[in-house]
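Dear colleague,

Thank you for sharing your sequence with our group. We've completed the structure prediction you requested, and as agreed, I am returning the results in plain text so they can be pasted directly into your records. Please verify that the sequence below matches your submission; if there's any discrepancy, let me know and we will rerun it promptly.
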Amino acid sequence: MKISAKPILPKIMKVDEIRLEMLNALRKSGRHIKKDFNATTKTWKNKPEFEMAISLKTPPGPSVSVTTENEIYGYVDKGTKGPYEIRPKKPGGVLVFHPLSMPKTLPGIIGSGPGSTGADTAFAKKVIHPGIKARRFSKEIAKAHAPKFARLLNEALAKGIRKSGHSMK
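Please find the predicted structure tokens below.
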């Protein structure tokens, strides 16, 4: 009696299929995140540019980053510590502002409204600004997108594995 053994080998994993699905999911997630950042400046006159970067590098793992180099956006997002003095840029100039104005953005809200300028106009050689209350756009957007991001990546991984001829149980 002759006994023989033949190994049963799984199909070779098609890593490129998985990588492509993961990159597509990262791009999709990044577009949604960037859209939310743009919503925070929808009614601004001088809108900042937001850049998106995606990465599959490990560590830390798949990631999406949306950034801006706009200083003013940073002040609004992170806030400023007051009080501090503001003077006109031109020597001998005056500041012109509306003392009863309403901001276009609010802390913890992903969006931008019309704001208001108020009826009165004030002129001053300098003002003492109380500081800007942080709007925390970055934190709110990250919190809102974290579950969607995880779901998209899990779906992409499963789809890539299926395309590779395997299954995820």
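Summary note from our side: Residues 15-163 form one domain.

Kind regards,
the structure core
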